[in-house]
Amino acid sequence: MASAAGDETEVRSRKPAESKFKQQALPAWQPILTAGTVLPTFFVIGVAFIPIGAGLIYFSNEVKEFQLDYTQCVPENSQETCADILEKNQNADCKCELKLDMADFGEDNWSGKVYIYYGLTNFYQNHRRYVKSRSDAQLLGDIKNAGDDCSPFLRPNESNPDQIYAPCGAIANSLFSDNIVLEYKNKDTADSEFKPVPVTRYNIAWESDKSKKFRNPDVPDGKKLKDVFESLGAVRPRDWRINPWELDTERESNNGFQNEDLIVWMRAAALPNFRKLYRRVDHDNEMNIENFDQRFNSSLPVKGIEYRLSIDYRFRVQQFKGTKSVIISTTSLLGGRNPFLGIAYVVVGCICFVMGIIFLFIHLRYGRSTQEMLNINPRTPYD
User: Fold this and answer.
1) Which of 268, 290, 312, 356 has the most CB atoms around it within 10 Å of its CB?
2) Considering only CA atoms, which of 176, 179, 161 is closest in space to residue 235?
3) Residues 6 or more apart from 290 whose CB is under 8 A from it?
4) Is the distance from CB of 258 to CB of 167 less than 8 angstroms?
5) pLDDT tens sequence for the chain (383 residues)
6) Closest to 299 measured CA to CA, from 279, 284, 277, 288
7) In the chain, what are the helix, strand and coil shares in percent, each to the nearest 5?
8) Is residue 201 a contact partner of residue 260, using CB atoms and an 8 Å limit?
9) Are residues 184 and 308 in contact, defined by beta-carbon separation less than 8 angstroms?
10) Which residues lie closer than 8 Å to 136 by C-beta, 6 or more apart?
């Protein structure tokens, strides 16, 4: 008897409380999809998405862009491409001078801000081991505090712990190293008249990256950044040609870990084909250039102008079957040229609109009223 009473108590203790929540008796709303609710949804999406997509395409087409692939450029007085020359000797110097086809620039001056990018293809910056191969602690100024994630780009010699690559890791080691100069001259003048377009290498990186993720070690009074790096046993990465304190010969604050070209490169791209900001055309003469050409004040002049690219070719791409290019571009309210989003909106809008018309025809030809649908039961005849 005692055992039976215990079992009965146990059964009772497992019974849910008499509440609507635990008895699953809360009021619920279940949408009934009818022609009166579905058809307007299709038409509203179609009517809204098509003009939005058209607007996105319009803004994308307003962006002016020029792109030149210079992977296989040939230096003057040579039969070999720079790519082949660097495959034989990765430290060789190779310079290409490429005149740009002005027909690709159109007939009108490019108004607004103009930017210069470099583009790479088949370069997988999103590879897991590549993305991990960095030391955030070191990039914040603690040179010696570099973890094993940087290996095998941590030290020149594992048996000598006093020396360390700075910055360490595969990302920093593969820093884009080509020097790209956009030059211009007036039409019908000699090639010797080519001179550099006023550009700036500053304010090209994200402000959050510059202020929070990259910092040089403290430099004592009377010392230079070079002295601090050398005293800590820091050496340049394996594939670099210059030291980290020599990245910018004009502005001391743009050297070391705070160099903006390095900061831009260290933000890994999500796709194997990508572009990164290289320079901004200096429309406001931020660099205080003497004899600043006022034609660049608010635009990139095209009328009566010829352009040329002068490139110090250093970055090797043949080993991973990639290509590299220079992109000169303006921007719009939505950024650079990218017609995909606009096309996607138009396609989705058109599909919804067409499907709405099809479903409307089916409903008018074969459909039932909402009340008839609600009154359907197992005995309703099928006709």
Assistant:
1) 356
2) 161
3) none
4) no
5) 455 555 555 555 677 888 888 888 888 888 778 788 889 999 999 999 999 999 999 999 999 999 999 999 999 888 899 999 999 998 999 999 999 999 999 999 999 999 999 999 999 999 999 999 999 999 999 999 888 899 999 999 888 888 999 999 999 999 999 999 999 999 989 988 999 999 999 999 999 999 999 999 999 999 999 999 999 999 999 999 999 999 999 999 999 999 999 999 999 999 999 999 999 999 998 888 888 999 999 899 999 999 999 999 999 999 999 999 999 999 988 888 889 999 999 999 999 999 999 999 988 888 766 666 667 777 777 65
6) 284
7) 35, 15, 50
8) yes
9) yes
10) 213
- 332 CB-side CA count, 13 A: 16
Q: What is the pTM of this model?
A: 0.84
* Residues 368, 372: Cα–Cα separation, whole Å: 6
The answer to whether 308 and 97 have CB atoms below 8 angstroms apart is: yes
Cα R_g (the chain), whole angstroms: 32
Instruction: Tell which residue, 304, 285, 288, has the closest CA to residue 296.
Output: 285
**At 67, which helix (H) or strand (E)?**
strand 65-69
138-163 b/e (C-beta count within 10 Å ≥ 16 → b): bbbbebeebeebbeebbbeeeeeeee
**Residue 216: DSSP 8-state:** P
Distance CA 119, CA 68 (A): 9
Q: Which amino acid is at 151?
A: S
Other C-beta atoms within 10 Å of 259: how many? 24
Cα dihedral 84, 88, 92, 93 in deg (nearest 10): -10
Rounded CA separation 299/40 (Å): 47
Q: What letter does residue 10 receive in the DSSP assignment? A: H
Residues 6+ apart with CB under 8 A from 304: 186, 187
